[in-house]
Design goal:
This protein has about 290 residues and is an alpha/beta fold. It has one domain: Alpha/Beta hydrolase fold, catalytic domain (Rossmann fold), CATH 3.40.50.1820. About 40% of the residues lie in helices and about 20% in strands. It has an eight-stranded mixed sheet with strand order 1-2-4-3-5-6-7-8, with helices on both faces.
C-alpha cells in the first residue's frame, strides 16, 4: 500500500467512526428538542432546483423582521456529516432574539464533493436569498460550519479571493457584515481527516487550511469567536483570537463559556442547548457583533 493509499484509508476510517459517534449523540438530542414560539418556519425550500436534499434551506422569520437582512446559518459536522436539522432549534432562538430572519442551509458533504463544491453550494444559497431581497448578510456556523462561515464572509466581500478559490464566475452583490463562528474548526491538515478531502487535486490556495492566513490576506468583517472550556477546539479559537486581534482593520472578540454545575460547556454547547444562559450570551454576542 502506498503512502497515498494509507492516507486515504485512514481518512475514510476516521470519517466513518466520526459519523457513527455523531449519530449516537445527535439522535436523542433531536428527538427531545423543543422549538420556541414566535418564529415563522418556511422549511425545505430548494435553493437549487435539482431534487437534492442537500440543496434545501429553511428560513426562520420573527415578527417585524427587516426584509433585507439575514443570518446565514451553516451547520457543522467535520465537512462530512450533518444537516440543517442539527441547528434548527438554535437558529429559531437566534431569529427570535435578534428580530432578524435566519436562513439555515444544507450543502453537499465530503467526500461526495470537496471544499470548492461546498463553497459553491453556499454561494448558490446566497444567490437564492439575494433574489428574495436579502442584501445584508451575517454568517454563523458551528465547528466545521464555523470555518465555513468565516471563509464565506471573506469570500463574499473579496472578488480576488473568490477567483483564487475557483469561484471567479460567482457574482456576489450582497455583503457580509459580520461573522460568528461557534466552537469553530479554523485549521485543517491536508494529510489527515477531514482536511484530506478538501482539495485532492491541489487547485486551491494553501490558506484554505489556515483561516488566520486568509484573514491576513483579505481581511474579515467583525468576528466574534465563541467556545467552551470543555470544547476540544477551545485552544484553536483562543489562538485565532490572539493572532487576529493583532491585525489592523479587523475587529475580533472572544468568549469562552465556563462549565457551571450541571451545564457542561462541551463542543457546540450553544447549538445543543440554546436555552442555556451561556448559549444566550453567545447569541447576544453574535447579535451585538452584527450591529458594528
Amino acid at each position: 500500500m502506498t503512502k497515498e493509499e494509507r492516507m486515504a484509508a485512514q481518512a475514510e476510517e476516521n470519517r466513518k467512526f466520526f459519523i457513527e459517534n455523531c449519530i449516537k449523540s445527535d439522535t436523542p438530542r433531536l428527538e427531545t428538542e423543543t422549538y420556541p414560539d414566535g418564529v415563522e418556519v418556511s422549511a425545505d425550500i430548494p435553493y437549487i432546483d435539482d431534487g437534492n436534499a442537500e440543496h434545501l434551506l429553511d428560513i426562520y422569520t420573527p415578527k417585524d423582521a427587516p426584509a433585507d437582512e439575514v443570518y446565514l446559518l451553516i451547520h457543522g459536522g467535520a465537512f462530512v456529516y450533518g444537516s440543517k436539522e442539527l441547528d434548527k432549534c438554535f437558529g429559531m432562538h437566534l431569529a427570535l432574539r435578534s428580530g432578524v430572519a435566519v436562513a439555515n442551509i444544507n450543502y453537499r458533504l465530503m467526500p461526495g464533493t470537496n471544499l470548492a463544491g461546498e463553497l459553491q453550494d453556499i454561494f448558490a444559497a446566497i444567490s437564492f436569498l439575494t433574489s428574495r431581497g436579502y442584501t445584508k448578510f451575517h454568517t454563523v456556523g458551528d465547528s466545521a460550519g464555523g470555518y465555513l462561515c468565516v471563509f464565506i464572509a471573506i469570500l463574499m466581500n473579496n472578488e480576488q479571493a473568490r477567483k483564487e478559490c475557483g469561484l471567479g464566475d460567482v457574482s456576489c452583490t450582497a455583503k457580509c457584515l459580520s461573522t460568528g463562528p461557534i466552537c469553530g474548526a479554523h485549521f485543517a491538515d491536508p494529510r489527515k481527516f477531514a482536511g484530506y478531502y478538501f482539495d485532492r487535486e491541489g487547485k486551491m490556495p494553501s490558506y484554505i487550511y489556515n483561516m488566520v492566513e486568509a484573514i491576513k490576506l483579505f481581511g474579515c468583517p467583525p468576528i466574534v469567536l465563541t467556545t467552551g472550556d470543555h470544547d476540544m477546539m477551545h485552544w484553536v479559537n483562543f489562538f485565532v483570537y490572539k493572532k487576529v486581534r493583532k491585525l489592523d482593520g479587523v475587529h475580533v472578540e472572544y468568549y469562552c463559556a465556563k462549565t457551571v454545575e450541571d451545564r457542561y460547556m462541551h463542543h457546540v454547547y450553544a447549538i445543543a442547548h440554546p436555552e442555556w444562559p451561556e448559549a444566550v450570551k453567545t447569541i447576544d454576542l453574535i447579535i451585538e457583533n452584527s450591529k458594528r
